[in-house]
Amino acid sequence: MKPMTGGMDLATLEGQQWKTWRTVFNPGFSANYLMTVVPQMLKDVVVFCKILEKQAASGEVFAMDPLTINLNLDIIGRLALETTFGSQRQKNSFTSALRSQIRWLSFGNEANIFERWHPLRPIMRFWNTRRMASFVSHELDERFRRNINSSESIGTRRSRTIIDLALDKYITGQAGDKKDEATMDATSKNAAISQIRTFLFAGHDTSSSTLCYCYHLLSMHPQVRQEVIAEHKRVLGPDPGQVASLLSEKPHILNELPYTVAIIKETLRLYPPASSARQAEPGASIVASDGRRCPTDGFWAWSNHLAIHRDPNSWNQPDDFLPQRWLVAKDDPLFVTDKSAWRSFEYGPRNCIGQELAMLELKLILAVTLRKFKVESAYDDYDKLHSQQRIKTVDGDRAYQILFGAAHPNDGFPYKVSMST
User: Fold this and answer.
1) Which of 42, 83, 139, 317 has a Cα-to-Cα distance from 192 of 20 to 30 A?
2) How far is CA 281 from CA 10, 208, 278, in A?
């Protein structure tokens, strides 16, 4: 995480430090607050739709992954910093540095030795880190000055961004009502910069991958697509062209889409974008199904979501895309009896702080796009255009996951899009 965040992020902090910063940023990720920013998110979704319209007119094959990455970068930049990156239309310094840093990550398992110990890697990491930290530092300074100089009291002012809400919490904790006396020391500032970089990284990378897989699975399962479209017609009205306006005025309607949520959860089950690791506590053991105890002293425990999510001991028909498993009654064979077997956002106090945002964002994008556009996987067309000899499937899956920051669809998920009739 350090090359991406600077090393003082919520994923790696421990003890009181972690608790302090989790408390500071919690307000910006609450469900109630996020509903108020749906109109802002829709601005970027509208741009996404315009790009899809242009692609539909061409009839060509495109890669979805870069498109969804840029969409999610724009959304998280707007929500976290009130910054218009405009990544869907143009390049900018911060997002270029962020994506470059991901390309230069190394997990120490590259088969090519030169790639693993590339001489340019430390130079590029340093340069990208400097660009990202400089940008976030400037934004943080501006927001901090604005917040302490505002004539409105913290308790009454309606903040618009995640960083503003976090600064409200930080200033109140440090200076109470005397906000003009608040200061931010270098350690606190560096920690805040790390958190913001974390949100910008994780907030775009995992959601973009999941959105690709939602489109892919719906393309492969037309009956499921018809059922979710029926739900959208019933809840959001008959005219797909009016959905964005409706959601801008009444964003809470997104909470009335259970089948859409089931599709997202089933997509995350089959294609989890990340896993989780935990440092073992002294004396802790992992107990196997046969009762054997495996001591974990001195080890890290890796919660491998891909394996857990397809474990036949927890899931009926584990390799099948069956959104209805999330909606059936307890007596149904598909009913998920072990809720802890679905770990996309993990559990406990260190669960994903951005899970409400991720689910809201995915529901919003699918609600706006599914009836306007028909996205179809185009791997066959892609393979005709790229005839290189290599392994093209894993366990029969052409859209298998590859590690690029988060786990993303192979070959960027090639697709064709058309306007729905």
Assistant:
1) 42
2) 19, 34, 9
